[in-house]
Structures are given as structure tokens and as C-alpha cells.
From TrEMBL:
Residues 3-71, 78-146, 149-217 form the BON domain. It comes from the Bacteria. This is BON domain-containing protein. Keywords: Signal. The keyword Signal applies. InterPro entries: BON_dom, Lipoprotein_DolP, Transpt-assoc_nodulatn_dom_bac.
Length: 217
């Protein structure tokens, strides 16, 4: 088991290495394998990038993200201006279904509501918005609606796992409750845990994934 000092050393080094993160403004502490990130990011995208940095370090048990997002002064960064930019960027994104997403902005926090067919469409909308200046947070409330038989969902995910070299298929179990999927098991890293979840979301008809997979210390 890795010590907190070792984890902190590796996280700090990775933050310095990651070009999308201004490491001087973001700090990490570690206690019993739990990482707390703090400081001020220049954008919501940088905040997300910092959390991803911590997640890819072997031995991290959990992450508490307390990073704030600084807002840039200027008329085009008020809520009306942000809403206009969000509408434009979603309109031009080919992965986002046109006319099916509603946008609300309050104090820089963007709320997305509506219905899409696939998880990747919801993620594409979130990623597009996260890169906009002035955005301090995102509430992605998009619903996924693509009816498929639960048995087909489970079989599809199991088949996808068999194709993944980065995942020990024997270590993960798949249960379905309608269109909801529950993943259980024990893997060696957050990367494997994320791979299993992404593969589950890629299955047609999945509207919810509960990832109860445990990362071995």
C-alpha cells in the first residue's frame, strides 16, 4: 500500500506535467489515500482536468474536489452572454442533437435539461460547455431515452468487456434493473474502474450506471 507522502509527490508531479492545469493555483492534500484538491481554476475545464490528474494516480482511494472557478470580468461573461455562447456551441456540435437541449444559467452555473438518445451525446454537451470562459459549474440533467431489452443491455456490456484489454472481465459483475446498470467487483486502478463504466454507458438503452466497483488499495 502506498503512503500518503508518495501519493502527494506523484499528484504534485502530475499536476506540473499536465499542460491543461496551472499547477501554481491548484493544491492537493492526502489523508489515508483520500485526495483533497483546492485552489482556484481559471475555467471549469481546468477544474475537471485537475480531478482527472488525481484519478489517474495509482493508490488514490477517493477524491474531494474543492477547487473553485474564477470568473473573468467583462460584459460577455454575464449570465446572458454565457447562455448565448452555450446555445451557439451546442448548435454547432455535431454530436449534440439539435433542438432538444434547454439551457439555464445562474451565476455562471449552466444547467442542461432535455432528452438525448445516448450517453455520448450528453457527455459531448457537457464537454462543449465546460470549455467556455465564464462558466463556473455545470448541472447536466439531460435524460437518456433509447429503449432496449434489459437482457440485451447486459449481454452487450459483457461482450464489450471481453473486447477490452485494459479490463479483467472476471473481476467485474453486471446487474440490470430495467435500463439501469449496477457494476460490482474489485479492480486495481481508477482507470480500470472508469473503463468499465464507460463501456457500460456505451451500451444502447442504458439510462443509469451505478458504479460500485472497488479500487484495491
Amino acid at each position: 500500500m502506498r503512503t500518503d507522502r508518495e501519493l502527494l509527490h506523484d499528484i504534485a508531479a502530475e499536476l506540473r506535467w499536465e499542460p491543461s492545469v496551472t499547477h501554481d493555483h491548484i493544491h492537493a492534500t492526502v489523508s489515508d489515500g483520500v485526495v483533497t484538491l483546492s485552489g482556484i481554476a481559471s475555467s471549469f475545464a481546468e477544474k475537471v482536468a485537475a480531478e482527472k490528474v488525481a484519478r489517474r494516480i495509482s493508490g488514490v482511494r477517493a477524491i474531494a474536489d474543492e477547487i473553485g472557478v474564477g470568473r473573468v470580468a467583462g460584459d460577455d461573461h454575464d449570465d446572458t452572454g454565457i447562455a448565448s455562447k452555450v446555445a451557439s456551441i451546442l448548435e454547432w456540435n455535431v454530436s449534440v442533437p439539435a433542438g432538444r437541449i434547454r439551457i439555464e444559467v445562474e451565476k455562471g452555473v449552466v444547467t442542461l435539461t432535455g432528452r438525448v438518445d445516448w450517453k455520448f451525446q450528453s457527455e459531448a454537451a457537457r464537454k462543449a460547455v465546460s470549455g467556455l470562459s465564464g462558466v463556473t459549474g455545470i448541472a447536466n440533467l439531460l435524460e437518456i431515452h433509447n429503449p432496449v431489452c434489459p437482457g440485451d443491455i447486459r449481454d452487450g456490456i459483457a461482450a464489450a468487456y471481453q473486447r477490452l484489454a485494459a479490463l479483467d472481465t472476471e473481476a467485474v459483475s453486471i446487474d440490470t434493473d430495467g435500463s439501469a446498470v449496477v457494476l460490482r467487483g474489485r479492480v486495481g486502478s481508477h482507470y480500470e474502474r472508469d473503463v468499465a463504466e464507460r463501456a457500460a454507458w456505451a451500451s444502447p438503452g442504458v439510462t443509469e450506471v451505478r458504479n460500485d466497483i472497488v479500487v484495491a488499495a
